[in-house]
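Please check both lines for our workbook:

___
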Amino acid sequence: MLNQRVAADGGLTEAELQAIAKTAYEQLLAELCQDQRSTPYYAPLHSVSNLAFAHYYQRLADHGGHLSLLPAEEQRLAEEAGWDPQRIEDLRTIIKLREEQGVTRFRPDYIDGLLRQHGRAPTDMLRWAVELALYPAFRDAHIDAEEALQRQLAVRSYPTGAVPGPSVPARIANDQDETAGSEASVPSEWLHVTATEAAERLIAATPKMFEHRKTGKRKEEQVGEQTLRQIRWAAALLERSMDGRPLWSLTFGDLKVLDQWFDRLPVTCGKAPWHRSPETTLKEICRDAEEKIELGDYEADAIGLLSGTTNKHFRKLAQIHSFLRDHVPSVAEVDFGKFMVPDRKDERNARAAYTLEQGRELFNLPPWTGCRSVEERLEPGNQIYHDSLFFVLLLVWYTGMRREEVCKLLVTDVDCVDGIWFISIDFTSAGRVKNRSAVRLIAISDELVRLGFVEYFEAIRTAGHDALFPELVSERAGAKKGDTFYKLWWIYVAPHLKTLQRGQALHAARHTVSTELKELEVFEEHRNDALGHKGKGEGSTRYSKATRLAKLKALVDQIPIVTDHLPDYREIHLLPAAMRRPRPRRGQNLTGAAE
C-alpha cells in the first residue's frame, strides 16, 4: 500500500526503497564490525548493544515509527516475553535518547544523503518512506554484526569489559599501545583486584596514610581525610567506567572512555550520597543531571567536570596505578599525563549559555522566517503560523522564563496596566511554579509586541481558549506542557542548530538573559525579580520591594535583540482549529476512539 501511494505521488518504487535500505544496511554493518574489530576487549558491550538495538529497530518496525515506552509495555515485556530488568533498561535508554536528546540515526541530513545518493530529491514523504524501510535494515545490520562478533570471539581472546551505552561515544581506537599485560603474568593476589580495592591497598601501605598517624607528633605530615576521599572517589569513577574489570587490565583506551565520562558528569558528581553507592552507575548520574537541567534545577554549565577536578582525578589514578605496577611489573605503564590540562581559574565563567549568534541562527529557521506548510514547519517556505513553536522560544529569549512557566500560561496570565503588557507567573490551575521566588510579574518587551505577541494573545482569547498554547494541553492529568513542547518541537529544532553545543538545553536561554543583563550592570535584585531567582542575601530578597512594572519593562527592553531581521507580525495566523485541541491520551486517536 505504501509503495502504491508514494509511487502515485511520484515517489519511490519498492525496488528503489530496498536499494536505499541495502546501502544503509551495508554502511551500518561495516561501521559496527569495524568498531568491534578495533575494540575486541569490549566484546560484552558490543553484544549487549547489538541485541538492544536489534530489539529497538524491530519495535520501530512493529509500531510503524517512534513510540514512548510505557509502564504497561514494560510489564508485558517482563511477564510475557521474559525480558530481564537490564534488557528493558537498555531499550528504555535508547528510546529516551531520541525523546530527550534527539539522538537518532534517522536525522534528515542522513536520509537526504541516501536519497541523493540514489538520485532522488528529498521531500518529507520520501524521507518518511525511507525511514520505514530502514527499520528492518538496521535491525538486520545489528543481528549480522552480532554473528560476526561471535565468530570473532571464537578465534580470539582478549580481556573484556564494558563501556558506556549509546549516550557516550564509542571508544575510539588509539595510536597508543593498548597492551595491558596478560592474565598469566598477574599474581593471583592481584588478578581480580579492582581500582577501588587497589586504592585501599595503597592507603594501607603508605605511611603518610596510616590510621595511627592521625594523632601524635607526626600528624602534621599525615595525609588528610579529604585526600583519602579523593583517592577513593577517583578509583570508584574509574572502576565504574571499566565496569568492574581488574585494574591490571587498564589501557590507554580505558582512560579515553573515562575522559568522555568526565565531559558528561555534573560538577556535583559525588556530592549526593546516592552517587557514591557502588550500585549507582555513571549513566544514572548523567541522566539525573540532564533531567535537572531540563527542569531548571541546574544551569547548563553544570555538565562537565572542571579541568582542576579532572586533573586531580587523573593524578590520584596515576598514583594508584603506579602502586599496582610496583607489585605487578608485567603491567605496562599508562600515560595519565596526556589527559591533564592546564588549570583555568576562570573556567566556571565559561557558561554553556546561548551566544547572540546562536540566537540569530535559531530565529532564522523556517518557523520564524517562513515554512512550507502547517505540517512542514521546519522546511523553508512562505507561510507563518503563530503557535507555541513560534512564541515559546521567543518568550524564553526575551523574558528568561522557564520552559514550563511559558508553556503552561493561561490567557488570564496576560494583562495590561498603564499601557504596559505583562505576564503573571503564579500557581494556577495549569500547574505549579518552581518555588515562591518564582512567583512574579514579567513585562513584555517592545520586541515581543512588535512580533505580534499581543495580537496572538487576543486571537487565542477570542477563539475561546483558556490556555495560551492550547496545542500543548494534554487530556492526561498531570502532563507537563513544557515536556510536551520539548518532545513535540525542541528535539526536532535542535538538530538544525549547527552551533549548538553539548549541555546547551533550552533552559540555557535563561542564563543568556542573566549574563547579558549582568554585563549591562543591571542590579542583581532586579535580575532576580525578572528571572524568579532567590537573592544571595536578605538585602536582595526579603527587604527589597518587587520591581515595579515600569522598571521591569525597562529591564526586558535591554535584552539583546536577535530578531530584528523578522518583519512586524500584526496579522496573526493561528493553527487550524483541529490542531488547537487538547492532545489525546496515548492509546487514543484524535477523534477520541481507542486505537
User: Anything to note?
Assistant: The two ends are 20 Å apart (CA to CA). The chain has a mean pLDDT of 77. The first strand starts at residue 414 and ends at 417.
